């Protein structure tokens, strides 16, 4: 058991009922609410006169919100105090502007008292130990697969990356963090006999044996910790549980792959924080590219090391009319991996057999092996293996070569 030190928090409320927000705050003795402020001036004054560990800005998350002004002024007045945005929604644009203004973290409101406390402890720990995150890691590499929107191929990438890594004899755990609509079970064809929800309900402390009881086994040896079967069960999965799972799993696997829902939810942010690597998946259309760019910028604002972010461009066929040059111009960098559109992919998803297994000779499978090789330090793949029977020929596909 770690002894938690007292957190002295200030809460600025903008556009929400301040009594409701106050009631939502932790009420244990190790939490001290220094005050509730309204507007920029009062917040800045309080920050300058009191000893504040963390500032929460509770707001509705709309883009024109005065909360952005509060964040900006508070950050200027007290740059060492971490600012957590507690927002009833998290539209992409708002989150980005909040990070730009100086926010260090965000959590959705409402939130359980425990989760709130955890988000605050994390933000404080991050400030005091800035730059030390890597040192706390155990053995496994934690690869968090992200994408700004649904349908870009995150789950496809997570599952095939997990299989490709397992085929190199690595010990792999895949965790489905799309807690409401997770479909890793379908993609891998694993029966959802036990899920994270059962683990959450099991009570007691978590150790490796217990975790092993709640993971499903895929034929390739990949262990799978499934998302709850129903959306209403998602709220049972706390950030603490997730943190414990990751801590324990790190000592027993070579790789942990986290599949995520679109956007930066609290689970996703804490997994990004704990991760050693990120895979950002975007597709080749202008809207998705714009959102991918926003996602990359958000990671930059979170101070994520850019060299640890692998960029995957899915459905990377040139016939959509966007050139390689356009892609690099929009994203500001070269994608690392290109995955072709392939009609075998939806078929593989429907059959619950990842394309790395169902069509091992396809370009798509080769792309996933190439992605895995970025993490295993295998000899770089310079040319995809033999072209199989897939619908996507070599023509029309973006460069598959690695630089
Ligand atoms: N390269 C591709 N070629 C053909 N179909 C694809 C490709 N990438 C994804 N899909 C299809 O798009 C759907 C969404 O992919 P998925 O991985 O579930 O996205 P996400 O997890 O980002 O929401 C899946 O049904 C999948 O079959
Ligand atoms: Mg998905």
Fold and architecture overview:
Strand 11 (277-283), helix 12 (286-301) and strand 12 form a beta-alpha-beta unit. The strands form two sheets. This protein has an eight-stranded mixed beta sheet with strand order 8-9-7-10-6-11-12-13, sandwiched between helices. A five-stranded parallel beta sheet has the order 2-1-3-4-5, with helices on both faces. It contains 16 helices and 13 strands. The N and C termini lie far apart (48 Å). It has 403 residues and is of the alpha/beta class. Residues 147, 150-156, 314-315, 339, 341-342, 345-346, 349 line the site of adenosine-5'-diphosphate.
- Structural class estimated from helices and strands: alpha/beta
Number of helical runs?
16
User: Would you identify the regions where 5 or more consecutive residues have pLDDT less than 50?
Assistant: 130-138, 378-397, 399-403
Helix amount, in percent?
25-40%
What strand order characterises the main sheet? 8-9-7-10-6-11-12-13
- Bulk shape: globular
Calculate the mean pLDDT score and round it.
86
Beta-strand content bin: 15-25%
Outline the biggest β-sheet: 8 strands, mixed
* Count of individual beta strands: 13
Give the helices and strands as they follow along the chain. EHEHEHEHEHEHEHHHEEHEHEHEHEHHH
Radius of gyration: 22 Å
The first-to-last residue Cα distance is 48 Å
What compounds are bound to the protein? adenosine-5'-diphosphate, magnesium ion
């Amino acid at each position: 058991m770690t002894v938690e030190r007292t957190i002295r928090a200030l809460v600025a409320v903008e556009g929400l009922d301040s009594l409701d927000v106050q009631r939502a705050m932790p009420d244990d003795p190790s939490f001290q609410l220094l005050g509730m402020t309204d507007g920029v001036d009062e917040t800045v004054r309080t920050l300058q006169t009191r000893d504040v560990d963390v500032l929460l800005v509770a707001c509705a998350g709309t883009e024109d919100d005065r909360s952005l002004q509060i964040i900006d002024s508070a950050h200027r007045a007290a740059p060492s105090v971490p600012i957590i945005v507690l927002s009833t929604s998290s539209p992409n644009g708002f989150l980005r502007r909040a990070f730009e203004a100086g926010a260090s973290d965000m959590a959705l409101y409402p939130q359980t008292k425990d989760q709130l406390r955890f988000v605050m402890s994390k933000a404080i720990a991050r400030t005091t130990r800035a730059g030390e995150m890597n040192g706390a890691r155990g053995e496994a590499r934690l690869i968090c697969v992200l994408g700004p929107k649904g349908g870009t191929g995150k789950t496809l990438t997570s599952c095939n990356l997990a299989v490709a890594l397992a085929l190199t004899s690595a010990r792999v755990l895949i965790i489905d963090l799309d807690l409401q609509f997770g479909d890793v079970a379908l993609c891998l064809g694993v029966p959802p006999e036990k899920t994270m929800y059962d683990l959450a309900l099991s009570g007691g402390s978590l150790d490796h044996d217990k975790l092993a009881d709640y993971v499903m086994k895929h034929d390739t040896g990949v262990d799978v910790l499934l998302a709850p079967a129903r959306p209403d069960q998602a709220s049972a999965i706390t950030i603490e549980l997730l943190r414990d799972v990751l801590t324990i799993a790190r000592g027993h696997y070579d790789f942990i792959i986290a599949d995520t829902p679109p956007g930066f939810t609290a689970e996703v942010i804490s997994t990004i924080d704990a991760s050693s690597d990120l895979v950002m998946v975007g597709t080749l259309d202008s809207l998705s590219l714009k959102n991918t760019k926003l996602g990359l910028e958000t990671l930059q604002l979170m101070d994520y090391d850019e060299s640890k972010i692998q960029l995957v461009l899915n459905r990377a066929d040139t016939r959509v009319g966007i050139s390689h040059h356009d892609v690099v111009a929009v994203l500001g960098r070269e994608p690392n991996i290109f995955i072709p559109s392939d009609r075998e992919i939806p078929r593989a998803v429907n059959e619950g057999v990842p394309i790395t297994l169902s069509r091992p000779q396809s370009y798509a499978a080769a792309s996933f092996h190439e992605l895995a090789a970025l993490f295993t330090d295998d000899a770089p793949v310079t040319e995809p293996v033999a072209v199989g029977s897939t619908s996507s020929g070599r023509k029309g596909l973006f460069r598959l070569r690695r630089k």
